[in-house]
Amino acid sequence: MRFNRRAPSGDVFADAFLRSRGPLCFDELLELSTDGVPEVSAWLGNALGEGLVEEVPSSERCFRLKGRGRRVLALRRRRERAIAARH
Question: 16, 33, 55, 82 - which has most CB atoms within 10 Å?
Answer without folding.
Answer: 33
